Fold this protein.
Amino acid sequence: MSAAPAIAAPAPVKPEGHTLPVVVICVLIVLAWYVAAIPMNWVVTGPKAEAAGGGLANLLLFSWNEARPVIPAPHQIAVELWKSVFMVKPWMPKSLLFHGWVTLSSTLLGFVLGSLLGVVLAIAIVHLRFLAKSLMPWIIASQTIPILAIAPMLIVVLGSLGFTGLLPKSLISMYLCFFPVTIGMVKGLTSPETMQLDLMRTYNASRSQVLWKLRFPASVPFLFTSLKVAVAIALTGAIVGELPTGAVAGIGARLLQGSYYGQTVQIWAALFMGSFIAAGLVWLVGVAERLILKRMGARP
Amino acid sequence: MAGPVISARELSLVFQTSDQPVQALARVNLEVGEGDFVSFIGPSGCGKTTLLRVIADLEQATSGTITVNGMTPQEARLKRAYGYVFQAPALFPWRTVERNVGLPLEVMGLDDAAARVARNIELVNLKGFEQKFPWQLSGGMQQRVSIARALAFDPRLLLMDEPFGALDEIVRDKLNQQLLDLWRRTGKTIVFVTHSIPEAVFLSSKIVVMSPRPGRIIDVITTNFPVDRTLDIRETPEFLAVAHRVREGLKAGHSYED
Ligand SMILES: Nc1ncnc2c1ncn2[C@@H]1O[C@H](COP(=O)(O)OP(=O)(O)OP(=O)(O)O)[C@@H](O)[C@H]1O
Ligand SMILES: [Mg+2]
């Protein structure tokens, strides 16, 4: 026992090894932003600063505190975010949480529908050889059509059929996000080695047994990689879906209103809210991935 | 059932590849009886794996006939007549040892799965490793898991493709002894592919010497070592005589092509 301390315990490795670079980059971006705000806002704020007597102090004061700037300063966005998240009741239309929730709910519905569609299509393509030839071109073509072009049509058509609100927006999310899931899952479902497939053949395993006991488990890492992409573009889809409807609620609606009324601070706050939601969703999928792959015996 | 377990007559197989056809098997005649331990030995590319795969209905012969338990290989496969051990362990990485061994039982819906799994894990000396995942095991342990998996549903016929090919001498000797004991106790029919002359001579009741281009059988040697033999017999003159004959056969097969 006495010899034990001689073998020093390894120094605890700092897990936050890459925190510092990230912080440095963030600080640099914020600084560059403040500097860039001066010339970019010059048109609006230059004359005002002159009128107030000129000088650097006045220039900075006006460039960074203009109510309707070309580009708001970071602290203005932070203040707007703070006010619209914490200072109003979350169910009020002034709250960004309210708008975030509206967008999030159609994102989630679209994500679930799109992922299911993506998995089902991939299973069909892997099992029915003729589908691979006949379906794949359509799937790829579907993604070459600009979503902004069909979103209004889709929403009008669905609206005339009586579908309004959440569903049309979710369908646009679904339309965008099934694609990476299909592509990833086709790859994943065909990833088992010949030997593993031959093994199942020696057991006279049925096609569904091969699917559920071999192909599907083998495709799980591919699935999660696709889901991370899918969840982010599902959010984009939901926001795009809010633009042509003249929706009154949602991140997209907030962006649109902001641009109508020249409220750049509001636009930027909504943009940040959108990216926080996206980051949160991707993070959640990552957490689910780690938990599930750990249960499936992945190397830590 | 008195008939042979495997019977091949004038069996040939040609692979159509993009450049030229490859004659993997040429007019192979082979008879494997109930309870035989048959080894295929020969240089790389002589068709050992191909012949085993034809028996297992993983490959179809281009001409000739073959029966397994008196049926076509396909009928035999559909009846789950054999257990197959591949050249690599081919374990499912997301399954623990226990669930890998239980895989055939799940697929076939057999009762008594837990007891069978436990018995076969014990048989290959992996007790205590039931909950480990494949990456936590050494190569030799993984191959033993794959053997336990092939034994789990208790097939009467065992087809093994170089199961110990990737292992070191010591582990290999030990597994050879264990496989021989298993064969003696269970009376299973075993068809075994190997590159190693001592392994083939020690294990087999019948050694099939093969030669490449085209893949064919050039000698069949029946041995008469006692069933309870141990590795010590490898020093005996009888053993060395058989090994010599195998070596001569392999040499003859080689000089053929040059
Ligand atoms: N699927 C295939 N398509 C085309 N040619 C093949 C195929 N499988 C095997 N062959 C060819 O058939 C011949 C016999 O191959 P086989 O795998 O049976 O050899 P082997 O005796 O098992 O060799 P090894 O000892 O290296 O495993 C080789 O020439 C090989 O190139
Ligand atoms: Mg081989």
Remarks:
- The first strand of chain B starts at residue 6 and ends at 16.
